[in-house]
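pipeline stage [seq->struct] | target=Histidine--tRNA ligase | organism=Rhodococcus maanshanensis | residues=426
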Amino acid sequence: MSKPSNSAFSAPKGVPDYVPPASAEFVAVRDGLTRAARLAGYGHIELPIFEDTGLFARGVGESTDVVSKEMYTFADRGDRSVTLRPEGTAGVMRAVIEHALDRGQLPVKLSYSGPFFRYERPQAGRYRQLQQVGVEAIGVDDPALDAEVIAIADAGFRSLGLEGFRLEITSLGDDTCRPQYRELLQEFLFGLDLDEDTRRRAEINPLRVLDDKRPHIKEMTADAPLMLDHLSQEAKAHFEEVLAHLDALGVPYVVNPRMVRGLDYYTKTTFEFVHDGLGAQSGIGGGGRYDGLMEQLGGQPLSGIGFGLGVDRTVLALAAEGKTAGSPARCEVFGVPLGDEAKAQMVVIAAQLRAAGIRVDMAYGGRGVKGAMKAADRSGAKIALVLGERDIVDGVIGVKDLATGDQRQVQLGEVVTEVGAILADG
Ligand code: HAM
């Protein structure tokens, strides 16, 4: 992503621009991931980019880094505290409650895509404006639904040609077993020789300590009790059923009992998609069940499960595998008019072709034939239409195959049919 050298401004730090031709890759990834959700009956939900700050504090959890350190929060001109959404789930729950979608048919299945904002330290694959495709399925606590959500993400990545990723999965238990486990873990952690910061973390959110990457902490916590060994009967049965469904679906997974997510609302099934070609920022998607969230936000005590897939990181993961998902071609046909009269005609021909559903661009600005042909090549078009003053008199137009260089004249009145036939032929 290069910057024009003489620009007075640049994009905010840590915020990517996607410009052509690379933006085609971004669009293909976003649309490919969204399509996987559409195939499973998820309806589109479009939500505000900013919400009441309290929604995220209450929904995502005040002890999380996302809420305590990374939110873009400001007072609007009416002195209300608003926050640029750092994630999508809390906003979806707010809208489901507000519009009483949970009073209709369950599960409520919704999908979304768009930008989210986190004031993180920028690095490769970690941006302050990040793009996600997400789904949420609300109101039914069924392991088959957990498996569906996971399988959609897996299918979405694979539909793009991505291969070098793995699904890590665990269960974070429910409110009948998690409080006891938390105590057990704290007891273990308080018995260790921890520095003050880590001890404080153990008090607020002991699970986070298991995610500490420092070698000496890793060593000390190697024998820590794990949630998976202390699940309630119900949570255990739920988890085993999810795994059985994934087996039946042929979705490969690795159970990672030490997985820790950055958001507080998760219960039971929790998962992450990890790609090894990305360095430190290896999570290309993540999600899980959040059975207490709706009630916490003032709604009914309904369960939910969903995911957020990182579009930016998936673009990088594809590049790391040497693959492309999008076509950089802006158009299929490029018009090359030679002279003013030809240009006037070409404008009309281009509109006719567009009306027939063909993607067309043309040379503007009185370029010479050389420059116009160069523009035709750069556009990625398959066909150039070449129109000279003489052709107009004869009522013909040159149709040039830009791959082979072959050119033939066709009747002007036939150009839409002829071009359509060539493109249909591949
Ligand atoms: P999350 O794990 O925080 O989950 O984010 C989901 C994905 O967004 C990550 O796996 C990653 O690919 C991408 N992502 C997150 N932060 C950044 C960043 N700074 N730069 C680039 N990509 C990033 C959630 O947001 C949950 N709302 C997912 C969910 C939906 N859980 C249940 N339903």
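stage status: PASS
auto-comment: The longest helix spans residues 143-159. The chain has two domains: 22-177+231-320, 333-424.
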